Amino acid sequence: MSMTRRQFLFTGAAIGTTWLGGSLAGCAGMSPRVTTMAPGITRIDLGAVAVTMLSDGAFSRPLDAGFVRNAPLAEVQAALAAAGLPADRVEVPFTPLVVDVGGQRVLFDAGNGEFGAATAGRLLDNMGKAGIDTTSITAVVFSHFHGDHINGLRNKAGNIVFPKARIFVPRPEWDWWMDDARQAAAPEAMKGAFAATRRVFLPLASSVQKFEPGAEILPGVHSLPAFGHTPGHTAFMIEGGSQRLLYWADTTNVAPLFVRNPDWAVMFDMDPEAARVTRRKLADWAIRDGLLLAGYHLPGAAIGTLARRGNGYEFAPLA
Ligand SMILES: [Zn+2]
User: Fold this and answer.
1) Structural domains of the chain, with CATH
2) Closest to 285 (Cα-Cα) out of 249, 253, 248
3) 60 alpha carbon to ligand 1 midpoint, in Å?
4) How far is the CA of 118 from the centre of ligand 1 (A)?
5) Binning pLDDT at 50, 70 and 90, where does residue 14 land?
6) How far is the CA of 144 from the centre of ligand 1 (A)?
7) pLDDT per position as a tens digit, 160-184
8) Cα(254)–Cα(204) distance, rounded to whole angstroms?
9) Cα-flanking dihedrals φ and ψ of residue 151, to 5°?
10) How does residue 31 score in pLDDT terms, banded at 50, 70 and 90?
11) Potential cystine with 304: which of 168, 229, 269, 317 (Cβ 3.0-4.6 Å)?
12) How far is the CA of 269 from the centre of ligand 1 (A)?
């Protein structure tokens, strides 16, 4: 399914209107209490809502001309250097989050599990250190079906790692990836991604909760269409605490490149133009409404605030 401009504008319009009622719930500008429990484990107290950011590790890849599709390599290297980072590699962190909201304990995205780089797959370890038992997770909510987000749900032995959780997936994401004809026609480079979706989800086909992006999926958890990175990529607004939290998943990849330069497209964006429009729309909204922002590939604790800077934005992590 390649999304048409018209479809995108329609879903994009929903972003602006869905949340008018929500502004009363939050209290923008209040600083939440932030506790670094251990490296890679950060707790944010939002009153009735508690957020625990849990590192799943990171993956360091050599920078090549293909990583940013639409910018010269020299400019990309300069952006990394300007952030004080090595210019020949990109370090991509992975940070799922657990949110206690509305009587539920919700995990957003499940990490790489036993299927990623040796430097990834730390989620369960960090969850244990944070005192969060896997059996206490009542819902696992997925933003999209890329392997670094879904593989941690099921281990190599074939077992679901969060045995008591209901599983929530965006319906357009499910429909796109689980289409057998599309899988059969996929280029070689995408075969692994299709196989991962089946390994993780096929045994759950009858029990998984498929939601329409835009719906409230749990009390205090609203989904938002954020298409582009993948056909069904979805963001989430978490309400009921002292400040509203937007989890925008892979709306950007690493911040020094794609928060600072929101018109740049990472190689993983499946519809770069739709992803670009989504990125600017969500970023502008987060700034306008003073939202807390969490993102799967953001730096530090991967939760913080966004500000305008030049033609792009700057992310300031809380820790
Ligand atoms: Zn990702």
Assistant:
1) 5-310 (3.60.15.10)
2) 248
3) 13
4) 17
5) very low
6) 8
7) 999 999 999 999 999 999 999 999 9
8) 32
9) -65, -25
10) confident
11) 317
12) 10
In a 10 Å sphere around its CB, with 0-12 CB exposed, 13-18 middle and 19+ buried, how is residue 160 labelled? middle
Which pair of structure tokens corresponds to residue 304?
């913080």
What's the pLDDT tens digit per position in 107-134?
999 999 999 999 999 999 999 999 999 9
How many A from CA of 250 to the centre of ligand 1?
A: 5
* Rounded Cα–Cα distance for residues 12 and 274 (Å): 10
pLDDT at residue 285 in the model: 98
Q: How far is the CA of 228 from the centre of ligand 1 (A)?
A: 13
Residue type, 32: P
Question: How many Cβ atoms are within 10 Å of 229's Cβ, its own excluded?
Answer: 28
Burial of 10 from C-beta contacts in 10 A (0-12 / 13-18 / 19+): exposed
Distance 267 CA to ligand 1 centre (A): 11
pTM score over 0.85: yes
